[in-house]
Amino acid sequence: LLFGDCKRMNAKPKTKWLRSPEYLAWVRTLPSVVSGQTGCVAHHLAGYGNRGNTKVHDFWTIPLTGNEHNLGVGSLHSGVETWEARHGEQWNHVASTLGRAIAVGVLKVLDLGAAEMETQDFESNENYCNEVIELIDLGAIVVNKKAALGRENIF
Q: pTM above 0.70?
């Protein structure tokens, strides 16, 4: 064994972060979860296991205006704990956004068992969000790209 191989043997497996430009584009069309204003960015969940500049799953995002996200006083990136004390846990907003995506058909449920899934069926919104990710990873839930990009009437 080479010295470098020892490091790799003890390394933790890398998390596979799921990406979807179409889902992010849809989140940007939503009104802010804080103010209801439009013209939002898709904020990736912060402070829950993601280190440094690594972004979590694209499905763990919420719509925020630029000021609410990282430009203004009291913005999420100026202090996650303070922001959550004022506006609620990010997981609650992520679960709500995922639920809306499923309800309007941006996330299409292919597995009938997954279609029965409701946030109240889970111990926490974090568990609900993790289950949605697992179902996306397994192919039981897929992104309806036409709906996400506004090329299909979903309302």
A: yes
